[in-house]
């Protein structure tokens, strides 16, 4: 996302001449810089010739002239008629414009008397601004329209003025870009979306989906979560936990029963099939069309599902991975990893630590003091539920309030009922 180079016009210098016995006259004409060329020494003109030239210059002051086309940086600029008071910018094809007003970076533009309207911008921003600069991912002053994806293309959404508004929105308010949720101080509480459950859907009719009842309200984009349960479990056995995620406006795709042990290829296959299917729905006629945040997917699971979640973490659509009491696993993850376990999970915790050691991305391992491998199945996830929700909202929807769970020595997951958190590649 390199900004386009702005063209600068040559300064206008003032030439003053006077005739003997007459009033002085002033003509404003553009001159090339002194080092533009070197004129050979010429005989000095007579006094009458100077007077004639000055008179011609005075006549030119009241007339408009049409500039010739000139080539700018990255394109051709056609100059507009000029007068003695200023310049009205012309249009630019394939390059940046030299104009009276401000410039727009990361895109082509046409300028008219100083106001700049962006047409396209690399890096995911489509916006309109008046009298200010637009940079990819940020609306700075003026009025910006459009939804900024995470390094993706802009999508029509709400309109924000300045830094953005409040409420559930598809417009960036933090400068990072993307849809946002209303702020919360209680991550254990239900989110802003009413929920519903779709059964016997997805590939082969074997998936269960926990989702917001109303999708795409006000242009909002819903991030998909593919969730793998523990070995031999139905996703419905964790319905309270998955519904809680859906209430925070995620679309949760619960896989069929995972029948293999840790690192079983069949588990990973079911996870991948579910993720690929929900992403495809964004471009297919139906309830999900154009309503999914497809490049901000979440790979998540519990036990063997948590193991497969890490293995799926390298999928191009996955923005973050959550492994709940998972086992040893690795992949070419490109987004941050959250791991949860418990001191009483005497088999799983050592395996989570091995996964932690192999991780090459920003990683947080949270450990519950009083719990075992089955901790997540009680009380709709117990203390792990709000921690996971805070993580999801922070990394997917730019909810800065979620930082308090993971950042600093006094973080929420640094004290009871948590202890001894482990961080890696932390930023």
How would you describe this protein?
This protein is an alpha/beta fold and about 425 residues long. Helix content is about 15%, strand content about 25%. The protein is built from 6 helices and 20 strands. The chain has helices at about 45-60, 240-245, 265-280, 305-310, 350-360, 385-395; strands at about 10-15, 25-30, 70, 75, 90-95, 110, 115-120, 135, 140, 145, 155-160, 195-200, 205-210, 225-230, 250-255, 295-300, 320-325, 335-340, 365-370, 420-425. Strands 12-13-15-14-16-17-18-19-20 form a 9-stranded mixed β-sheet, sandwiched between helices. Strands 3-4-5 form a 3-stranded antiparallel β-sheet, with no helix packed on it. Strand 3 and strand 4 form a beta hairpin. The protein is globular. Residues about 1-165 and about 170-175 have low confidence and may be disordered.
């Amino acid at each position: 996302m390199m900004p386009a180079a702005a063209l600068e016009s040559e300064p206008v210098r003032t030439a003053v001449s006077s005739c003997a016995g007459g009033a002085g006259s002033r003509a404003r004409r553009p001159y090339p810089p002194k080092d533009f060329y070197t004129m050979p020494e010429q005989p000095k003109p007579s006094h009458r010739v100077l007077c004639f030239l000055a008179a011609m210059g005075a006549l030119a002051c009241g007339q408009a002239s049409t500039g010739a086309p000139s080539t700018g940086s990255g394109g051709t600029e056609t100059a507009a008629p000029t007068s003695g008071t200023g310049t009205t910018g012309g249009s630019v094809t394939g390059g940046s414009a030299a104009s009276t007003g401000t410039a727009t970076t990361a895109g082509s533009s046409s300028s008219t008397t100083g106001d700049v309207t962006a047409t396209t911008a690399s890096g995911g921003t489509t916006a309109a601004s008046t009298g200010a600069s637009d940079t990819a991912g940020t609306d700075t002053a003026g009025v910006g329209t459009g939804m900024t994806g995470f390094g993706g293309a802009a999508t029509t959404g709400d309109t924000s003025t300045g830094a953005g508004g409040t409420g559930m929105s598809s417009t960036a308010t933090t400068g990072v870009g993307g849809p946002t949720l209303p702020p919360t101080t209680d991550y254990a509480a239900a989110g802003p979306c009413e929920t519903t459950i779709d059964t016997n859907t997805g590939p082969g009719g074997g998936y269960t989906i926990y989702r917001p009842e109303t999708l795409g309200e006000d242009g909002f984009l819903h991030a998909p979560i593919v969730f793998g349960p523990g070995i031999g479990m139905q996703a419905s056995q964790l319905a309270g936990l998955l519904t809680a995620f859906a209430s925070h406006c995620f679309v949760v795709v619960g896989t069929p029963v995972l029948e293999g042990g840790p690192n079983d290829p069949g588990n990973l296959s079911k996870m991948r099939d579910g993720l690929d299917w929900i992403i495809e729905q964004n471009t297919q006629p139906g309830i999900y069309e154009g309503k999914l945040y497809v490049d901000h997917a979440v790979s998540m699971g519990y036990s063997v599902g948590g193991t497969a979640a890490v293995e799926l973490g390298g999928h191009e659509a996955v923005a973050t991975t959550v492994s709940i009491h998972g086992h040893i696993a690795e992949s070419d993850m490109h987004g941050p990893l959250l791991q949860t376990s418990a001191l009483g999970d005497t088999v799983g915790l050592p395996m989570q630590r091995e996964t932690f050691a192999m991780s090459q991305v920003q990683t947080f391992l949270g450990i519950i003091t009083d719990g075992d491998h089955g901790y997540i199945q009680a009380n709709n996830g117990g203390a792990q539920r709000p921690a996971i929700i805070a993580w999801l909202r922070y990394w997917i929807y730019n909810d800065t309030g979620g930082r308090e769970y993971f950042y600093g020595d006094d973080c929420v997951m640094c004290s009871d009922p948590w202890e001894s958190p482990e961080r890696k590649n932390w930023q």
